[in-house]
Amino acid sequence: MESISAFGKILIHLVVGVLLMLGLFGINKWIAPRKSTVQKLSSYECGEENIGNAWLPMSSKFYTIAVIFLFFDVELAMILPWTTIFADKALIRADARWGWFNLIEMFVFIGLLVLGLLYVWKMGDLNWVIPNKIAPRVEKIVPEKLYEAINNKNYAVTPFQIAPKKEEIAEKVNLGVDKPISKPSFKPTFRKKEL
Predict the structure, then answer these.
(1) Tell me: the pLDDT tens digits for 118-170?
(2) Most C-beta atoms within 10 A of its C-beta, which of 16, 51, 89, 98?
(3) What pTM did the predictor assign?
């Protein structure tokens, strides 16, 4: 009796994983309640109420901090394997210079990272200070009194209606209320071509 090859085991693992995933999604679809409310259909933002538009200008400091974090996160991923190799006594016994070479290599690597950190710090990218917002100054051609008159004027706001009534439409068009609104008189007709 032949045993299953390594690729066969991987195939079985993938098939079982896909079947489990589909089964769990099916059970969720079958059991889960389907009561949609306005609150459930709204987007979830970490427990905060959604206010305003999502398309706002974002500070480039978020991007800078994210790149710096990613840079030092990758550094940590490089240091951890180095520590396991540096402590390998078999490599040090094979060549005594191995330990010193490995140590100097890591000091150079950390030194370059520290230089990068000092550069970013000196450039002020790590300072999370909100800058003073300065309104742009424009030479005004329009006099201030005109701005005040426009801003102080009371504008009439018409109430919202879903659909206007026929009487209101007739009054706006200066037609009589009794006179029906005419529909377009053109009706296209299609004739079959005779063979």
Answers:
(1) 998 888 777 776 667 777 777 777 788 888 888 888 888 877 766 666 666 66
(2) 98
(3) 0.39
The 10 Å Cβ neighbour count of residue 125 is: 15
Contacts of 194 (CB under 8 A, 6+ apart): none
Q: Which residues pair with 48 in a beta bridge?
A: 45
pLDDT tens readout for residues 33-42: 888 888 777 7
Nearest-10 crossing angle of helices 60-86, 97-123 = 170
Q: How many whole angstroms separate alpha carbon 76 and alpha carbon 70? A: 10
The enclosing H or E element of 116 equals: helix 97-123
Structure tokens at 71: 């840079």
CA atoms of 13 and 19, how far apart (whole Å): 10
